[in-house]
Amino acid sequence: MSTQSMLTSWIQGQKPRAHEVKDASVFYRNLEEALDGLRANHAMFTPNISAWKSGEGVDFCSNDILHLGFTGQIRAAFEEELARHPNHNLHSGGVRMLDGNYEYIQQVENEIAEFHGAETALIVNSGFDGNTAIFGALPRPGDAIIYDELVHPSSIDGMVHSLAVCRKPIRHNDCDHFREVLASVVESEEGVRDGSRCVLVAVESVYSMHGDVCPLREMVDIAKEVCPLGNVEFIVDEAHGTGIVGPKGAGLVSALGMEKEVAVRLHTCGKSLASAGAAILGNITVRSALTNFARSVIYTTAPSFHMVASMKAGYHLLKTGAAQKAQENIIYLIKRFVTAIRANHDFQKASEMGIVWVPLCKDLEERKFLVHIVPIRTRDRYSYWLAFHLQLAGYCIYPLDHPVVPKGQSCIRLIVHGANTEAQIDGMVKSTCEWAREMVEIETGAAEGNNRIPKAAQQVYAMMGAAA
Ligand SMILES: Cc1ncc(COP(=O)(O)O)c(C=O)c1O
């Protein structure tokens, strides 16, 4: 699908529809009315196929971060794995704790656990299932949960169904706020105070909207200080750190050598490992609790051979260092992007005017970990205009606007991949700076004909008009 046809299909998807079903039953009318709420905010998801998939655009958006999928590396490793098991079954045969268990899945779990320096690994069908299992099953009655306000919805879904006595959010990556909230939980919950109940702390190693890394060492030290009885345990979702951070991509916990200080980790394979499924790491107690209390583990068919083989293929590429070049290229290109955009006069001017800015420009050199996600922040609603500009220039990248992100946090999210090139990054910089210049001219009244809308947006709005 070309960028033009993708935009056309997206525009079509934002047109109100409730009036078209006014004679249908109330069930359909109510659903279309709710969907019209999304359409009014241009927030309706439509089944697009990104232009990079047909080679008509550059991939700056997909979760195939190391490009193990794009380059065919994962397919080759998977096919080799299949060839080693010519008599494999497609089905697992049942739920894991009844007929669904098999030797191969146990072997792969052992290999994954070893790679991450964990006692056990439990493979589940997805990261979403993993988080609902972790947070639904592990908190016992009277336990409290403290979570970073940006944790994934799957963690929140699990917490909502847990037996925890309370759930308290903390401001994103804010250690002082963590200390304050932890102290208030100790104060209000007797069981936590006397050490008979615990506090579970939910964080992510890398946050997908901000591209920043959890101050895990600092948070664990604060927990030890505030709760010297040792009843605070950490749960780290490594979905965006897997394959990217740490030795051979083993994750943040491994990078910091904190394997013994973190009770539970979640590694997903649908992102940088270009396959599917997830593994929950913990000790034998954690594993037993999950296989006996977690509804998304107990009441579902055990993972199939094919999914487990694809996970093994991804881990094989990490272990053998086959993904290392991609990992290094990502960091190199991120530095190249930030250095170039920081030096550009038009971009600087637009940043000073609060039109568009890249938070990473401020502290690139101070960051202990660089990852693949670079948010490009814009004034509210400008994220669409910048995204239109970049998409029409051939860069596949999406705007994130309210309600997907809180008001005032509009951005587009540049995801740099293993097989992206210098030329692609340079083109992205050039195109972003052209838009910044156009916006500065518009805002300072220097634009031709005193036009208030940038050219790419005019083009898209004309397409919208034609589609109406
Ligand atoms: C932080 C985080 N955790 C968990 C998940 C869910 O993983 P999966 O896609 O394997 O269900 C995601 C996916 O978007 C995620 O970003």
- CATH class category name of the largest domain: Alpha Beta
Number of helices: 19
SSE-based structural type: alpha/beta
Order of the strands making up the biggest sheet:
2-8-7-6-5-3-4
The CATH superfamily of the largest domain is identified as Type I PLP-dependent aspartate aminotransferase-like (Major domain)
Distance between the termini: 21 Å
| CATH architectural grouping of the largest domain | 3-Layer(aba) Sandwich
| Bound ions, cofactors and other small molecules, one mention each | pyridoxal-5'-phosphate
What would the average pLDDT be, to the nearest integer?
94
The radius of gyration is 24 Å
Biggest beta sheet attributes: 7 strands, mixed
Which parts are unreliable, with pLDDT below 50 for 5 consecutive residues or more? none
